[in-house]
Amino acid sequence: MSFEITDILLEEIKVHIRNEDDKILLELFEDVHHADVAEILDEVNWDEALYLLRLLDSETTSEALMELDDDVRERLLDSLTPKEIAEEIEEMDTDDAVDAIAELDSAIQEAVIEQIEDEEHKADIREMLQYDEDSAGGLMAKELIRVKETWTVAGCVREMRRQAEEVTRVHSIYVVTKEDVLIGRLSLKDLLTSDTKTKISEIYIPKVDSVHVNDDGEDVAKLMQKYDLEAIPVVDDEKKLLGRITIDDIVDFIRDEAKEDYQLAAGITQEVEADDSIIELTRARLPWLFLGLIGGVGAATIMGGFEDILEDYALLFFYTPLIAAMAGNVGVQSSAIIVQGLANDDVKGSISNRLLKEMALAALNGLLLGLALFAFTALWYRNEPDSLHTALAISISLFAVIIMAGIIGTFIPLFLNKRGIDPAIATGPFITTSNDIFGILIYFWIAKLILF
Amino acid sequence: MSFEITDILLEEIKVHIRNEDDKILLELFEDVHHADVAEILDEVNWDEALYLLRLLDSETTSEALMELDDDVRERLLDSLTPKEIAEEIEEMDTDDAVDAIAELDSAIQEAVIEQIEDEEHKADIREMLQYDEDSAGGLMAKELIRVKETWTVAGCVREMRRQAEEVTRVHSIYVVTKEDVLIGRLSLKDLLTSDTKTKISEIYIPKVDSVHVNDDGEDVAKLMQKYDLEAIPVVDDEKKLLGRITIDDIVDFIRDEAKEDYQLAAGITQEVEADDSIIELTRARLPWLFLGLIGGVGAATIMGGFEDILEDYALLFFYTPLIAAMAGNVGVQSSAIIVQGLANDDVKGSISNRLLKEMALAALNGLLLGLALFAFTALWYRNEPDSLHTALAISISLFAVIIMAGIIGTFIPLFLNKRGIDPAIATGPFITTSNDIFGILIYFWIAKLILF
Known about the structure:
The structure is a homodimer.
Chain A: H1 7-18, H2 22-28, H3 34-43, H4 46-55, H5 58-67, H6 70-78, H7 82-91, H8 94-103, H9 106-115, H10 119-128, H11 136-139, E1 145-148, H12 153-164, E2 173-176, E3 182-186, H13 188-193, H14 200-203, E4 211-212, H15 217-226, E5 231-235, E6 241-246, H16 247-265, H17 278-305, H18 314-318, H19 320-343, H20 351-380, H21 387-418, H22 429-451
């Protein structure tokens, strides 16, 4: 099924744009899927993209625009007049339209909305702009098929045909009262097989799941995943049907959340792409690096405090990067498992039980790693004075540091979660840095205790 | 809409199981969604779960089983007889059935398949067991609605009604030739609005996307996401319709992939949950920790090689954890951005351009961090001999190490990707460890150059 965007095709498109061969271009783009149009807009240069955007019909370009990265879309739309933007918005589903408008400069938002010709669409957009972006209201679209319980099957089919023109995918037919209160849904099978004079109230299914317009988007995503729902209606306080959320929006939501968590774990504070500018990338990366710098200075200061044993036990100092690395790695592992467990609601039971388990786990790992390190250092430095003693000090300290790192890595995300803070922030550099400092402190304390 | 699984409810269920109040239990579970049944099976103890599994009808339990974690399901099924397992399998969609059977001990797989009564289901399962788990064939289900082009609308509706009983969700109606070759799809709207005597061949849409049964699952996931497809048909070499893949399977696929990448970044080698046993968790965590240990020993050996400057420049040694931490953090950031970019097909252009950009970025970050470190160390140690000189050496080395870390973090995933190896493996401990070693080596080299 794949449509390939080759360099040759791109070159051809560029030439046609240069020659303003509008007719050829329109023919060329006739059967191209909007996702592919988006890819082409992304590959050509700025002026070429604008040329295509103005040439192609809004139905194609509006969908292509929604496939682009937020910042590319924002910049492209900013180059259009409010009238031109409104034409694109006109063709979008309400949820996309609201997303696109929300990204615009607040100064021109009103001007764009004013230019929308379809009064119903305009009113829907105004209503939806009020909902929080991450709430059910912010995720839903107004487009759906609703039928009144008082209608007959024949009337219903007629109405559906009209409504279906505005709805990309049908998913479900929702049944409402005269006052628009959601009371059930209709199965296509029943609709197909009932006599055309049957009343909807006789054949609808009164069981229907719904979410409230103010519900948190993440909760809606979990619900839809848990119950394998492809669409869920959104209602207000009076159970009036406001819109519906479809699974494709949730797929994007899940992907974005996963990306964000992954980047947080890697020490990147805001969503960036490989192709972003160096300034944007620096802004996203520098904060955690700076935190790491402070941690390193802390570790250096601690080591300075143990300078008196430097002459006799230089070996201890050589093993500080190892200690810091192990403390960091164990901490990141522990926190990653807890953060994922929390995200999937898998982490139950008391915090103290978790910590006990993590201690046992860290003790086992620490024992194995400590033994390996002892075997190596005892052998490698066997000709140096006091080598066995030093090897023992390093290994036992490593054991203690690993246990501490596991506890900190488990405790911090659990603690943040209890406080209502996203625990994902606790993975990566945050844990690494705190474990570096504590690790080196504990290491020298214990080593000194053993050696003196 | 939420059904709450409270402690009180669980206690009640446990009491009823103890008293073998089957009638009450059956009533209690009557309207419970299978996802909630799964949660209850997860919360009660082993014998209680088995009791419920045997008591409740297979239609409910088979779906609940598919919601459980793989290992829990596997253990539960292992406690049942082949006959009992076959009853569960009988109620599953073919894709779930095959997943469940593939998890069983190979010794009893055949015995279970033998016990399946529905011959068509049995044949489908045997066919599907041949496909690779991660291919389109492994992801698809055989259940779908197919109509022949020669049928009339009336015959089609009649057939659909029959087929729909086996299909949970309709999504699309596929049109095939007499030889079962996929030639198009049918819109419900057209079906609803055409005369009952119309031939399907007159109203079907001849444009339909499909994937080949051997296509890679990840590619199918990308395709369905790109084109916002909710279902896609799967065909063989002769374009014969074999099955279809639905978006809910892809959601699970995306989630699993994201989880795996996240865990790799955190240094966890196999999929684990917070609730897994200490042995399982150790097996997943120890390999990378061991790698970290080797890296640390390498760093210590390098530092031992610079022992001759220890007496005069102890400060250099105090800053090794800082150097190692910064090298690790920068490397993880760089690799995470590249790994994500590769996963989303965002990374285009030549490797050398990427490396140049990363060098510029690292140089900017390194300059800012180096200046900060210089300011601090020059001030903090201002009373020590040769402090300005040492501060300069540490800061310039940090600058060099950051550039190196960025290059390694960018190069390794790009290189692995070119070689066809999953670049996600390059994040986390792998990058951290190699950067630790190289970082400390470069740090001492440059510092020595400056100081002597």
